[in-house]
Write a structure and sequence with these properties.
DUF1697 domain-containing protein, 184 residues, alpha+beta, 2 domains, Alpha-Beta Plaits, DUF1697
């Protein structure tokens, strides 16, 4: 059975980097990936690995190089398999998140950075109900709605150039949509 993957692009459709999802899908098809489909306008692409192309993390550099050329910007992607996404969804279901909060997944490939994020979070004051839970592939960050960029942690991490090539965030609702589409 072929495994599906999702590429999470960082920093598109913000700060003047505008990429249409149809063009993004076309770029993945031209790279040789099959069954490419985009989800939302935040740069999420589900695809199947074509024969002769290595899967998962082996595809990261190739995709970043090709997207950088295709769209004339410095592309950064994080790739997760359908199994990884399923594990994330299951982990999210075990969390108690108040209705007035957002639950974000901060995706990261660097295990040291995951620990650094936890250390940073623990060193700062948090808004009421704000929490961080470490996963192997990133962290869940729960924050009250309306406080995403005004929380100390959010203002230090989201959009910080230090994390540009290594970290991207998605609302857990987006991850759940991706998971559902990967099952189809």
């Amino acid at each position: 059975m072929e495994d599906k993957y999702c590429a999470f692009l960082r920093g598109i459709n913000v700060n003047g980097i505008n990429i249409k999802m149809d063009a993004l899908k076309e770029a993945f098809i031209k790279m040789g990936f099959r069954d490419a489909k985009t989800i939302l306008a935040t740069g999420n692409v589900i695809f199947t690995i074509a024969e002769g192309i290595n899967g998962g993390q082996d595809s990261k550099s190739f995709i970043e190089e090709e997207l950088s050329k295709y769209f004339s910007y410095e592309a950064h992607v994080i790739i997760r398999s359908s199994r990884d996404i399923q594990d994330i969804v299951i982990a999210a279901q075990t969390m108690d998140v108040a209705e007035e909060c957002h639950n974000y997944l901060l995706l990261c490939d660097d295990k040291e950075m995951v620990l650094d994020l936890k250390e940073l979070f623990d060193s700062m004051p948090q808004t009421p109900q704000e929490q961080l839970r470490v996963l192997e592939c990133g962290v869940f960050w729960t924050v009250p709605k309306g406080s995403t960029l005004s929380s100390d942690f959010g203002s230090k991490v989201l959009g910080n150039k230090k994390y540009k090539s290594k970290l991207t965030s998605r609302n857990i609702n987006t991850i759940q949509k991706i998971h559902k589409l990967m099952l189809d």
